[in-house]
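The freezer alarm interrupted the setup, so I double-checked each line after restarting. Inputs confirmed:
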Amino acid sequence: MKKELEHQFVTNLEKHQNIVHKICRIYTNDQASHNDLFQEITIQLWKAYPKFRGDAKFSTWMYRVALNTAITLYRKKKRGIQTQDYDSVHFRIQAEEYNNETEQQLKLLYNAVKELNDIEKALVFLYLEDKNYKEISETLGISEVNARVKMNRVKTKLKAILNP
Amino acid sequence: MDELEILKQDWKKQESNYPHLSYDQIYKMLWKKSSSIVKWIFVISVLEFLFWAVLSVFYINDEYWAQVERIHLTEFTIAIYIISYTITFYFIYQFYRNYKKISATDDAVTLMDNILKTRKTVKLYIAYVIISTLVTALVSIYFTMEYHINSAEVLDSTKDYSFDFNQWAILLCFTVLFILIFLGLIWLFYRLLYGILLKRLAKNYKELKKLEI
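Predicted 3D structure, all chains:
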């Protein structure tokens, strides 16, 4: 029984692991932290898995547990300053797809997102994942109106970071 | 175009650029140790309950009871123990109940609420320990002073000198000062410990609750 549950869980997570990688990308700045957070999210997902009823989609349920881990449960390890530019190593943008100007703008945008606080990052992440305001408000436990207001502030803040 | 829209377009294009962990790599992670703050709060809280319980077990012995008898506090002490153990068990029960409620499947605010509630139970318990220690100490000092003269043993060993009012006052002041410093240090220690542990949670909780009616 337990083995079956393990197998089911790992198969599901392997299939949907991109969700976790994307959260790690938003919340961490180097590969070691990325791996740490990925591991902690996996542990929390596994611990919470018996509560997963199957009435929601596995991926929808994952967003909640994974974000909760990144925002609340995960305790960052102290690390020395990492000099390696993680984005440029792991998420190199294909040169033929973009012209230089767009590439530059995207780089600035990703850096601007890194400057946001934990909650703003969560809002941006859910927005990028095409979640509507109802889903965003349910994941974070705030009202829809509040989610909208917060999102507008994030947009304003991003603009301000990009055009100081 | 809106900045977030530009970002979203790229975000979708990058879908295939993420690392891919194998089934075995993920499977191995299931058995790794969690470093979640809930685990730390649980461990620290259990240690706190244990610390005070063990301390009182070591402190209470026959000599202690003889001392209590001498200053006519037996009934008071027994009553205090019954009350304090009842209260301690109540706190442990509350703590356990709140701890069980913590679930990563809740929405972010509910999860944070439940963690803060667990922490609040322990905070109240520590406040209770500090206040009750202070009250018990003050009552003991009062009875020690009151019955000092009546105690045969004390009279035998100290009949050559007796305390006047000023000396008693000085003794009282020093004792109270000592207790206050001791308890103050404990309080500071807890503030620091939980302050470090919950700093990020408190900040995010405030941020989420902002604008909420």
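Quick read of the result. Helices of chain B lie at 3-13, 23-29, 37-59, 62-70, 74-101, 108-147, 152-158, 165-209.
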